Amino acid sequence: MKKKMIKRVTGIAAIAMSAVIFAGCSTAKTSSQGNDQTGSTVKIGVNLELSGAAGGYGNQMKQGIQMATNEINDKGGVNVNGKKKKIKLIIKDNKTSTSTSASVAAQLSNNDKVNAIIGTATTNAGTAAIPNETKAKVPALSPSATDPNFTLQKSGKVQPYVFRACYQNNFQGGTGAKFIYNNLKAKRVAVLGDNSTDYGTGLAKSFKKQFKGKVVDTQYFSAGDKDFNAILTSFKHKKVDAIYAPGYYSEIGLIIKQARQMGLNVPVVGSDGMADAKLVQIAGAKNASNIYYTTPFSQTVAKSNPTAAKFLKAYKARYHTDAPTFSALAYDSTYMIKQAIESQKSANSVKITKGLADIKNFNGVTGKISIDGHHDADKPIAVEHLNNGKVVGSTQIK
Amino acid sequence: MTTLFQQLINGLSLGSIYALLALGYTMVYGIIKLINFAHGDIYMLGAFWGYYTINFWHFNFLFALLSAMIVCAAAGVVIEYFAYRPLRHAPRITALITAIGVSYFLENGMSYLYGADTRDFPQVIKQVNFNFWGVRVSNIQILILATACLLMILLQLIIKKTKMGRAMRAVSVDPDAAELVGINLNRTISFTFALGSSMAGAAGVLIGLYYNSIDPLMGMTPGIKAFVAAVVGGIGSVPGASLGGFLIGLLETAVQSVGLSAYKDAAVYLVLIIILLVLPAGIFGKNVKEKV
């Protein structure tokens, strides 16, 4: 008798609970045609890796976003259908964790009611945030998630609310492969990729698929590794013509230093994760010779691009260091959202989504950006050449 | 053949860093049965100290090394005083969790204060390569190996020949009995922390010079690997920790040189599991029967 009673009580409780939950859902549904712009500000949420493994990149992006926002606000703000509205940033740290990133996305879109989200730095954290962003109909623009599948659903259709401001891996890896085979005439190549990020593994994979010569050896390292002597010694033993090293400057800098110190002087070719002034500092200027990387953004390209030149100068004045690629990408992301708002004459989140998808020939720091049907950023690519730590030339790759 | 010897050199220079770190783990464990997870972060502090003194006070390498050892020794004592001393009689797991907390505190504190960016360590000693029958050895590799060996011998002498060393050994056997015969327990434990932390500080400066790159999270992985090295050598044993460090360094190099670089960390942890199953006391550890 007693047992039955308890059962019934829990049953009722369960029904009551689920009713409450569903009630919450239905209220959320009826009001959602995205988040409208309210008051005198446009709210932009920032979902970034400010601590944890990718904390360094996230903080550089934060600087780029803050700089862009200050510039926009100093000029009065974003033009929303004739009225100037200031941008209000709501910055949250996802701690380089997928679960935190998902909850940050939910908080930003449901509680803070942001009109658009910039983030995340990494593909993993970004993918985890997609369901919450899609549910709330808030667009998310990632400055640096490079995995080809990031903007695609499982079925291959495009994710309606997800965009990126950077290259996707197949494009960049393929360019590296063409450059090594056609321009450097290297036939025996070793691949040394960062396997702690989708960026590194994705580039290594697409490089191997598209390289016409022989990939002699493929080795992986993880972020934070400091000793590459063993791997490089075995590369030297195998007599490679070039090394393709997709990863970030902090490790590639060490790879260059250690390779040169053991007398392995073959070209080292990498990707835009290397395009940072720190690379030469870590490798040592003397060692940083015969280095190439694919990049949209560079000091030489900047000379022919007034937007980039202005950005580099302003960044240096504000943070007293040369602007890293991540800051440039995040800076562009902020201005892309501004352009989306102004072209749609509305800061409603669904409208911004449409505006982002329509971006054509946007004049960014990292080149002329057009958003294609897969929500990828389509922009020119160049290969920069370093000698003695200085950029000595760049080659356009078609 | 030259490749083999080259890899041996690579392994030894990596191993000497692990060995220096493992010493700190093993000494602290030997005395208060605490695995001090913050030890790897003391090594990071040492590297940052070296970075600042060389860049801003223009210390030469020797001064930077010695001052880093002193500063890290002080940091070790302070951490022991505030974090571990109040827990002297608490269950061991409490102290262990505190150690992890201290480690997070140091890592994130440094990230907050100085940024999570990687920095380039000032190159105060110019690298010169020597060729021995085709095998390349740099002066920095020799310096690391020599400094590590020198410090290990010095440590062994302190433990075996001095009065403080004798007190340390006594406390490690039985803290209560040691206190009964008039050994100042707190001072001995502080001294142990100071000694272990100064080794980590030296390792930090050496690694900064060798790899030219430091960041606030640099202590995490080497810290854990040094812990594995201490276990392999027999935790609590000083010569064991040195040997364990070199073994782990050589193992990592060997795994990478046969082309399994993606699994080098996995190999180290696999060794930890095997050692714990087959030889739980480690190579040099004494198999002490615990009375129940």
Automatic annotation (TrEMBL), chain A:
Q: Where is the signal peptide?
A: 1-23
Q: What is this protein called?
A: Branched-chain amino acid ABC transporter substrate-binding protein
Residue ranges of domain Leucine-binding protein in the record: 41-387
Does the keyword field hold Signal? Answer: yes
- What keywords sit in the KW lines? Signal
- Where does the source fall among the domains of life? Bacteria
Q: Which CDD domains match?
A: PBP1_ABC_LivK_ligand_binding-like
Coiled-coil intervals, chain numbering: none
Is this entry keyworded Lipoprotein? Answer: no
Indicate the family of this protein: Belongs to the leucine-binding protein family.
Report any Pfam family annotated for this entry: Peripla_BP_6
Under the heading InterPro entries, the entry gives: BCAA_transport, Leu-bd, Peripla_BP_I
UniProtKB/TrEMBL annotation, chain B:
An individual GO BP term: D-alanine transmembrane transport
Transmembrane regions listed in the UniProt entry: 12-36, 56-83, 95-114, 140-159, 191-211, 226-254, 266-285
Q: What is this protein called?
A: Branched-chain amino acid ABC transporter permease protein
Q: Per UniProt, what is one GO molecular function of this protein?
A: L-phenylalanine transmembrane transporter activity
Cellular component per GO? plasma membrane
Q: Taxonomically, which superkingdom? A: Bacteria
The signal peptide here is: none
Any one Pfam family here would be BPD_transp_2
Protein keywords: Amino-acid transport, Cell inner membrane, Cell membrane, Membrane, Transmembrane, Transmembrane helix, Transport
Q: How does it sit in the membrane?
A: Multi-pass membrane protein
Could you say which protein family the record assigns here? Belongs to the binding-protein-dependent transport system permease family. LivHM subfamily.
Q: Which InterPro entries match?
A: ABC_BtuC-like, ABC_transp_permease, BCAA_transport_permease
**Compartments where located:** Cell membrane
Q: What is its main location?
A: membrane
